[in-house]
């Protein structure tokens, strides 16, 4: 029996690595917000330490059922009070490392969920 993948109508992440993600064949090397319905915007965050409550106020204005936060190479958590704008709109937030956020985003988008992911993408460490 031959299996073939179903067609995914949502915007998906086609690849990722240290310092980048790929969407529709384009390599993105800076922080970005992506949505299953085609949302794509630059995000003015270069590191976790730059996050502030204003970033979550902006995320709350986006049309999302589920919000994912990819915090970089490691999972890190923001102060709960920063999430008030999301919670007041009944938008759930899941925080995880960037690679896990990419995988989770693709799964939820393929299920037809209205998911948005905010990814912190920092330059890879120099060797």
Automatic annotation (TrEMBL):
Which species is listed as the source? Answer: Simplicispira hankyongi
Q: Known InterPro entries for this protein?
A: MTH938-like_sf, NDUFAF3/AAMDC
Listed name of the protein: Xcc1710-like domain-containing protein
Q: Which SUPFAM superfamilies match?
A: MTH938-like
One Pfam family this sequence matches: DUF498
